[in-house]
Amino acid sequence: MSAVFSPRAVLAVRLAVLALLGLAVATVLLFVWRARAYEQLGEPIAQPIPFSHKHHVGDDGIDCRYCHTTVETDAHAGLPSTAVCLSCHSQLYRDQALLALLHQSAATNQPIAWQRVHVLPDFVYFNHGVHVAKGVACVECHGRVDQMPLAWRAQPLQMQWCLACHRDPAPHLRPTTQEFAMDAPLPPPQQATALARAAHLESRRRMTDCSTCHR
């Protein structure tokens, strides 16, 4: 008795089922990632050493660039090395138990495993240097870190949130002299438009093209 379905038809059905299963798994993972992104909003991230941005930035007035040395030039802002921390703490509070891991890092030449607060999926490309060069201030994405005892995610960093800025960037730009000031107000509309013009931004079509962020 001949088979009801040909081998080719059976293979097609199997492939279709596998594709549907793959799509279902991808959909579940996407929803989990989106839910976790929102759950983490406003939740302090535990660190090996409880570094307080509120103390260092808000109280002591340390500029973002002192620790995040490559934020103006590279895709990644850069995490502070042990040497950067010791530029102060080789003298200040050097015998505090809280900083024992810092001195251990210096002695063993092993970097401190800081936990990332703002994590993007691997399929998203983001360049800090480009955004800073165009006038996007730290506070726009990272919030008032000068008021955070432990850093937390202030914005969802999801695609629609990013696209809202890419579609209309002018209201989100600041003068280059105020990009690293936590309390600098947004400029009035006329100045914002002038800043956008001076920044020589790409066209809206280019800024919202998939290939701009997904490479």
From TrEMBL:
<protein>
    <submittedName>
        <fullName>Cytochrome c family protein</fullName>
    </submittedName>
</protein>
<dbReference type="Pfam" id="PF14522">
    <property type="entry name" value="Cytochrome_C7"/>
</dbReference>
<dbReference type="InterPro" id="IPR029467">
    <property type="entry name" value="Cyt_c7-like"/>
</dbReference>
<feature type="domain" description="Cytochrome c7-like">
    <location>
        <begin position="124"/>
        <end position="215"/>
    </location>
</feature>
<dbReference type="InterPro" id="IPR036280">
    <property type="entry name" value="Multihaem_cyt_sf"/>
</dbReference>
